[in-house]
Amino acid sequence: MPSTLPERGEAHLWYARTEVCCTPERLAYYRSLLCPDEVARYERLASNALRHEYLLTRALCRLGLSRYSGIAPTEWRFTANEHGRPRIDPADAATDLHFNLSNARSLVAGIFVRGIDAGVDVEHTTRDSHIEEIAGRYFAPAEVKALMRLAAPLRRERFFSLWTLKESYAKARGMGLSVGLRHFSFDLDRPPPVRVAFEPAFDDVAEHWQFGLLQPDDAHCVAYALKRGDGTDWRVRIAECVPDRDFACV
Judging by beta carbons within 10 Å of its beta carbon (0-12, 13-18, 19+), is residue 46 exposed, middle or buried? Predict the structure, then answer.
């Protein structure tokens, strides 16, 4: 894995599996990286599965950021915007690094870039979901029509592809579901690359965005969104990882 990011033009997306990463030794190390607020949140979680997932998410964040800087994993401090999106505290670290994280059952992902906004979303695709009801509430009309034309097995796959894309965009915007998911759409019946279309009154420009989808296994779907701005697609390097002491370049 590279230890530095180019100034522009490349994003790195790492994903990690709890069953691989969360050995007793690594769990103890991951916990040692947490700040007091993170420790308090960790201790409030109700099950070992949720605790392990949380530790891996925070370790991927801290160790991932430290790959691209001279800052130790324990020294990162974070704030949140008005919608709750975490970001590096500018008072503690003068850096143009941007990151976003997501986790679903047994899988954690993080995207790291310099100088632009990015979002990533992971969904566990085998869970029970009322996909038609959710689509009717949150998807654009064209997306709902395309979804309902599909046979049931393909409908589930399409639903999660659309949902992760929408979530990745909302997270890149730093607004969560308040962005209004019905006001933009993806046509996945067209060949790649994935592109977005906004309603005329929506405050954004489709050409500013780059999206991607991946399926790391039969139970998960991952999507990313990059606001690359100038219309030139960025290179996205994707790899499974095991965050540990050797992961961070410090």
Answer: exposed
The model's pLDDT over 22-59, given as tens digits with 9 standing for 90+, comes to: 999 999 999 999 999 999 999 999 999 999 999 999 99
Q: Does residue 2 fall inside a structural domain?
A: no
CATH number at residue 143: 3.90.470.20
Residues 195/206, Cβ–Cβ less than 8 Å: yes
| Region class of 9: left (phi > 0), else alpha (psi between -120 and 50), else beta | left
CB atoms within 10 A of CB 116: 18
CB 167 within 8 A of CB 158: no
pTM equals 0.93
Give the span between the Cα atoms of 84 and 154, in whole angstroms: 34
Residue 3 φ/ψ, nearest 5 degrees: -100, -10
For residue 247, what pLDDT is reported?
A: 73
HSE on the CB side for 248, CA within 13 Å?
22
Unique residue bearing structure tokens 């975490």: 86
Domain that holds residue 227: 10-240
Report DSSP letters for 106-150, one per residue: TEEEEEEEESS-EEEEEEETTS---HHHHHHHHS-HHHHHHHHTS
